[in-house]
Amino acid sequence: MSEIVTDSTVEPVDPVDPIVDPVAVADVLDVAGVELRHLKRVLEKVGESAWERLLGWLVDEYFRLEVTGWENIPAEGPAVLVANHSGAWGLDAFVLQNVLDRGLDRPLHVPAAPLVFRVPVIGSYARKKGAIPLDPTLGWEHLNAGGLVGVFPEGMAGLEKPFDERYRLRPFSPGFAVTAVRAGAPVVPVSVIGAEEACPRLGDVPALARLLDLPYFPITPPFPLPSKWLITIGEPIPAPPRAESLAGRSAAARNLCAEAQAAVQELVDRERSRRETPFW
Fold this sequence. Notes:
about 280 residues; alpha/beta; 7-stranded mixed β-sheet; two-stranded antiparallel ribbon; 10 helices; 9 strands
């Protein structure tokens, strides 16, 4: 029987001690990071394009949306567009933005809650279309530069309405009126009819809301129902003269807020009666 001869002069190779160039590893990681960022941008662009096409189809075909009152939006100078807010998921904000983006020759900036910017694709799309972070100034810098700002003064309370209280406006937050008075901008009331039936709030699931860190999680159809939508733009409400005193400006803002809410509610009540049926 032959013997196995080993060479004791050959040092064993440590499998965990390979010859690795740290610089090469760093280069590979850098390239991978660039590729991942590029892939993310591509996926975002694809998602944004798909979302925009879906919105266009919803507006033109599915909701059969009609818009009246374009002439009431000033062609130049600052203005605050004030609309009612409804429907379980706030789809009306995206529909209104889509309609105004296509119909206006000037940009519109809409203050949006932080939640909007957290949603993949939706957040980046909203930002590109003029959404701005929600803060106490409510787009004053854009108004001061002569731009348009759109707001939903009901806020989340408008989306949380149960279906049997649809189209009953919740109290408006007066922040937009303070901003309008400060900028000397007229307020343009806008009514949106159709969102209450498209995305009815039938209830909510508090446990899911807490789990997902959402203000609330509504029970609603998984896809919007085929309701008939009407958007009506009312006549501008001029901004009151800027008072010298803080008390005077506060009173003017409160009065403007109340007048704007009454104007939007009047439009909502009138336009609801124009539909022969809420659905197809």
